[in-house]
Amino acid sequence: MHNDDLSRFFSENMAVDGELSFQQWEGKVLDFAQRVSRGNCKGLALVSSGGTSVPLEMNAVRFVTNFSTGSRGAGLVEDLVVREWACILLHSESAQLPFRRVMDNMDTERFFTELMAPEKSSAVASIVGTYSKYKTRLLLVPYRTVVDYLYLLRLITVAVCHRAECLRTMPMVLLAAAAVSDYFIPRTLLSEHKISSNDGMTVHFSCVPKVLNVLSDIWHTADCDVSRLFVTFKLETHDEMLETKALKNLTLYNCDLVVANKLQEYKERVVMYWRDTPGSPTVLQRPPNGSIESLIVDCILRRIECDATGGGRS
Amino acid sequence: MHNDDLSRFFSENMAVDGELSFQQWEGKVLDFAQRVSRGNCKGLALVSSGGTSVPLEMNAVRFVTNFSTGSRGAGLVEDLVVREWACILLHSESAQLPFRRVMDNMDTERFFTELMAPEKSSAVASIVGTYSKYKTRLLLVPYRTVVDYLYLLRLITVAVCHRAECLRTMPMVLLAAAAVSDYFIPRTLLSEHKISSNDGMTVHFSCVPKVLNVLSDIWHTADCDVSRLFVTFKLETHDEMLETKALKNLTLYNCDLVVANKLQEYKERVVMYWRDTPGSPTVLQRPPNGSIESLIVDCILRRIECDATGGGRS
């Protein structure tokens, strides 16, 4: 896929008012970039999270969704901001959000107990403290459908890589952790109203265009003096297929790193395939009382540090 | 649809471990019935809320969902408990929950401000007070798929109508406010793993069985001495079709009341079609600073009061 084909995909599949309302984000992202470049941030991360939904009608009552809580993206953001990085999180409306997810995941009884307690539990006190300290380094951008997701991801990528002069000297990483639907229904084929039939319903989905190579091109052609890492995630259910597909994605999408997750253990263990050393992946295992996202972040930041001191890749 | 057909539908479409884990709810519902019948509750409401999801694979990664926030059901429950009714809420996992939805709907900044404030805002203080006072009168039962929803709704209906002797003298109302998917994929036709294809994807959905008449039979054949109302909801986008379909549902599902909602104004105005006076529906309009759910509840409770004093239906 080329950038022009992607532009045609958007003009064919996005409502005009959707496009206009999304364009406000360019200004907000550039303002955010100005602010964090003036602060003491060590770098800027663009993280995507959640699952994308696919409407079945123009005035949509029904959607195809995919199973994703957004916890990976939320965890990565939490670990990045405490390491003094600024983060833009492109998240689905239903995704778990950084920091507040601790309260959101509580059952109602504990939720109200925490809410009314004069002294918060240590877990809640800790996340509230971290949120307050770092909230100005966090920009949340919500999306709903798969088309909106792709549009916003390209818009923000272009803004931070090519529009924001102030970011030229700041290391950046794009962590594409959202679970993107493989299928969608083109707008021209969408039923206008709620589909109704007494004899079942047959739906044909088209393939969502593969856009990561377009984003990689935008990301890697930025005129900058510092490290710019492009990281994608691959989720499968079989070890062997996971390795094959992760290695394939390294070249297919021209990314610097593929984080391979097996569905059954994605919170416990990941394998990191680097573009320059695909044959010797880094295996990360969650430590007791720690998170795997924290290890992923440390591993990536070490690489960026290494690049900066000239000890990194050839 | 007959009750036996419905049992066959469950045995064909539900995983065995799903059925076993759901059966625990019978005991919990009966315990709850015992507790509230000993208290001073004026009646028991069974409310359903949220949208149902339809898995596209056996090990489901993708689902068809419908657009429903669950706010109608949450509002009905809030208004019922303050009027001294006990409530069982059968809600989708993603539905808004009574009381805590006020906090859940806040943006993150306001959420954390409320969380840490020594003095809560009046809106939050009010819902926390109401929750604390009435929480023992509230039983929340979560569901995920459309099949799970139908199974649990029948299980709870049978439990409160036919198993719980203690409820024989307590007025009851069933408010079926959940948005139920019209289509699903039979288990025998489900792909075991994530569907994969390079040329799009075609999915055929079967019709979900219409079960409200089965539930109405269970509801209305209960051996009891008091009012038992069976209320369904109808949502459409055109006025005329809405009236036609609401009137049709009155007889098709043998319900006492159909609450007709037009999508464009469902939080502002509803039309209540009663079985015994279908030609003269009650129109409810949201008052300033009030909720439409509060009016729906008042209207239903007046009818129950009227039945109890013999001034009601013929």
Number of E strands of chain A: 12
Assign the CATH topology of chain A.
Answer: Rossmann fold
Overall mean pLDDT of chain A stands at 91
- Helix tally of chain A equals 10
Distance between the terminal alpha carbons of chain A, to the nearest Å?
A: 28 Å
CATH architecture of chain A: 3-Layer(aba) Sandwich
CATH level-four homologous superfamily name of chain A = CoaB-like
Secondary structure class of chain A reads alpha/beta
Give the oligomeric state: homodimer
Most residues in contact, chain pair and counts = A-B, 49 and 49 residues
Count of separate structural domains of chain A: 1
Portion of residues in beta strands of chain A equals 15-25%
Descriptive terms for the model:
10 helices; Rossmann fold; homodimer; 314 residues; two-stranded antiparallel ribbon
Tell me what the structure shows:
2 copies of one chain form a homodimer. With 314 residues, chain A is an alpha/beta fold. The first copy, chain A, is globular and about 60 Å long. In chain A, helix 3 (71-82) packs across helix 10. The two termini of chain A are 28 Å apart. In chain A, strand 11 and strand 12 (282-285) form a beta hairpin. Chain A has a single domain (3-226), classed as CoaB-like (Rossmann fold). In chain A, the strands form 3 sheets. Chain A has an 8-stranded mixed beta sheet, sandwiched between helices. Chain A has a two-stranded antiparallel sheet with strand order 2-3. Chain A is built from 10 helices and 12 strands. The first copy, chain A, has helices spanning 3-13, 16-38, 71-82, 101-104, 108-116, 122-134, 146-163, 212-220, 239-252, 292-308, and strands at residues 43-49, 54-55, 62-66, 85-92, 138-143, 172-176, 183-184, 201-207, 228-236, 257-262, 269-274, 282-285. The model of chain A has no long low-confidence stretch (mean pLDDT 91). At the A-B interface, strand 3, helix 5, helix 6 and strand 8 of A face strand 3, helix 5, helix 6 and strand 8 of B. Strand 3 of chain A pairs antiparallel with strand 3 (62-66) of chain B, so a sheet runs across the interface.
